[in-house]
Write a structure and sequence with these properties.
Pfam family, one: DUF1206
Strand content: under 5%
InterPro entries: DUF1206
Number of domains: 1
Structural class: mainly alpha
Protein name: DUF1206 domain-containing protein
Keywords: Membrane, Transmembrane, Transmembrane helix
Largest sheet: none
Shape: globular
């Protein structure tokens, strides 16, 4: 499981690194690329031995998902890893990683498009709207995503990522801290923006207001100094990918 976790963390790092690089291209005017997990997989597939690399990422993500599931069932090695709160956190991570792994594997097998789901975010929101109290469910989900984004940013600022790191060489500790803080803040901001659009969809009762990762990043480009803001967030996402490489190397486990 330790080997699977390290492989999976490195694979997850590849996804975030590519998303960050694709978002940087968008920031500098190249609007043809898609800055999300699907775009990252398609970009990876275009490299030499691309299909092999996509398989490697998909299998790595599957291993990481199983490791997170084991943490949810048996408890994690990090502080308070056996508490219900930490088990729930691991279960949520398992769910996300399982979807990403399935997406990568089906894409490598030629039976998927590389997206994380068969529908667009607005299509999924529209389906939830059809459920009893669907509008409230959408709003609650949006608030949860916003809270996750804020929580991720706060954890990064408080260096909580150190809880999952083992001994890091002294000469590299500062660099790893920079990767963890900058990457965690960028990731948290993107989550908060995406969640905000889900809340807006619930308020306006309009599923078209929902935006996925790519659209959320593109929205940042419309803000004041937008391209530079998007470039900063994109750089942060790429740094988070590098942090995941460091976590794979020095993970406590």
């Amino acid at each position: 499981m330790t080997a699977a976790a390290r492989w999976g963390l490195a694979a997850y790092g590849v996804i975030y690194l590519l998303i960050g690089l694709l978002a940087l291209r968008i920031a500098f005017g190249d609007a043809e690329h898609q800055a999300d997990s699907g775009g990252a997989l398609r970009e990876l597939a275009q490299q030499p031995f691309g299909n092999f690399l996509v398989w490697a990422v998909g299998i790595g993500l599957a291993g990481l998902a199983l490791w997170r599931l084991s943490e949810a069932v048996l408890g994690a090695a990090r502080p308070k890893g056996h508490t219900p709160k930490e088990r729930l956190r691991s279960a949520a991570r398992f769910a996300v990683l399982a979807v990403l792994a399935a997406s990568a594997i089906t894409f490598a097998a030629g039976t998927g498009s590389g997206g994380t789901a068969g529908d667009r975010p607005e299509d999924l929101t529209s389906r939830v709207f059809e459920l009893p109290a669907g509008r409230w469910l959408v709003g609650a989900l949006g608030l949860v995503v916003v809270a996750v984004g804020v929580w991720s940013g706060v954890r990064a600022l408080r260096y909580k990522f150190r809880e999952e790191l083992g001994p890091v060489p002294a000469r590299l500790r500062r660099a790893v801290d920079v990767l963890g803080v900058a990457g965690g803040l960028a990731r948290g901001l993107v989550f908060a923006v995406a969640g905000g659009f889900v809340v807006l969809a619930a308020v306006r009762y309009d599923s078209d207001e929902t935006k996925g990762l790519d659209e959320s990043l593109r929205t940042l480009a419309t803000a004041p100094a937008g391209p530079w803001l998007l470039a900063a967030v994109a750089t942060g996402l790429a740094l988070y990918g590098l942090f995941l490489f460091a976590l794979a190397r020095w993970h406590k486990g």
